[in-house]
Amino acid sequence: MAKGSVAIASDHAGYALKSVLKEELAAMGCEVVDLGTDNADSVDYPDFADAMAETVTGGRAERGVLICGSGLGISMAANRHRGIRAAPCHDVIAARLARQHNDANVLALGARLIGEETAKECLHVFLETEFEGGRHQRRIDKMS
User: Which of 89, 99, 114, 122 has the fewest CB atoms below 10 angstroms from its CB?
Assistant: First the structure.
């Protein structure tokens, strides 16, 4: 994906990493849609997953990035929404495969499990990798 719109959101555990990745997205030339949270005060991650789902499925952003402590809870909450394919990734291989084989449209990261540099690498790979289609498309169709 070249320069495009990317929504980003986190709970309190992901706030610091969200700030870092928000700057990275801007440096990449992406239009950033920040859905919060805006500080490290305790919040509920499903609220931010819901906002992300509405933003991506509503067309306000092409892709999304969600961050919580593990990346798991926020991805589960996002995946409840039809049209969202949120993939929790902790390395670039997972980020690449999430795009190539699963046409993931939301990258989920665990701030307590991944360092800043690896998170940046995952972000770049996720945004730059194209969906392969082909045999993978029929599987995506079954989820849509």
Answer: 114
